[in-house]
């Protein structure tokens, strides 16, 4: 399959961004962060989105791919997130490059992020990933264990729990998206607004290209869009 050219990326993004922003303004309950999920997207296309389309946040899935693109990215006004599954032995490569890790789902990973953040002299913001549909193939903490896990993170001085992230099943219907997102939102309120009381700054990361409208309707304040913005991945 041929690689998409920069011109093709630009044409797709220019076409898509207006509709995406309109959807956000119509469905957002408050301030919403539009995160561009940039796996397989070349750095030049990402830079165009950042320089010309007002994209301020991007998310990468793979450590190797992030490291390959990192030097070429225009980083002055850019927040880089890590949104994919993260192996403990790779935390050290991204600890100084990302602002938020969305995929925290084990005690072992929490301990390693805390350790590497301490070495780097920083506090790393994290989201607890919830395995909202109990899928074997996905990472994430079960809904039942989420609260205990999230509250337990306070023992790590160099790690700060900022909210939750969830990825619903890929083939779900609109009704199912709403069911899963509502459930995630409820867990989020219980932990971050009732228990941790940091409601002004907490993050509910849910909604992708096929589900962001439903996610916004359910109170998401960070949507992660790949194909809706960049077109189908090669
Ligand atoms: C790829 C990816 C997205 C974006 O997916 P699209 O369906 O292309 O919008 C969002 N979140 C995560 C964790 C991803 O891996």
Structure report:
This protein is an alpha/beta fold and 234 residues long. Helices cover 41% and strands 17% of the residues. It is built from 9 helices and 8 strands. It has helices spanning 6-27, 43-52, 63-70, 91-94, 107-119, 146-152, 174-195, 212-217, 227-230, and strands spanning 33-37, 57-60, 79-82, 100-104, 124-130, 159-166, 203-205, 222-225. Strands 7-6-5-4-3-2-1-8 form an 8-stranded parallel sheet. The longest helix has 22 residues, at 6-27. It is globular and about 50 Å long. The protein starts with 5 loop residues before the first helix and ends with a helix. Pyridoxal-5'-phosphate binds next to strand 8 and helix 9.
List the helices and strands and how they pair.
Elements: H1 6-27, E1 33-37, H2 43-52, E2 57-60, H3 63-70, E3 79-82, H4 91-94, E4 100-104, H5 107-119, E5 124-130, H6 146-152, E6 159-166, H7 174-195, E7 203-205, H8 212-217, E8 222-225, H9 227-230
Parallel strand pairs: 1-2, 1-8, 2-3, 3-4, 4-5, 5-6, 6-7
Helix pairs in contact: 1-2, 6-7
Summarize the structure.
This protein has helices spanning 6-27, 43-52, 63-70, 91-94, 107-119, 146-152, 174-195, 212-217, 227-230; strands at 33-37, 57-60, 79-82, 100-104, 124-130, 159-166, 203-205, 222-225. β5 (124-130), α6 and β6 (159-166) form a beta-alpha-beta unit.
Question: What small molecules does this complex bind?
Answer: pyridoxal-5'-phosphate
CA radius of gyration is 17 Å
Mean pLDDT: 96
Largest sheet, order of strands side by side? 7-6-5-4-3-2-1-8
Could you state the order of secondary-structure elements as H and E? HEHEHEHEHEHEHEHEH
Helix proportion:
40-55%
Based on Cα principal axes, name the global outline: globular
* Largest sheet descriptor: 8 strands, parallel
The number of distinct helices, counting runs of at least 4 residues, comes to 9
Q: What is the first-to-last residue Cα distance?
A: 7 Å
In terms of DSSP E residues, the strand content is 15-25%
Strand tally: 8
Uncertain parts: none
Task: Assign the structural class, choosing from mainly alpha, mainly beta, alpha/beta, alpha+beta, or little secondary structure.
Answer: alpha/beta
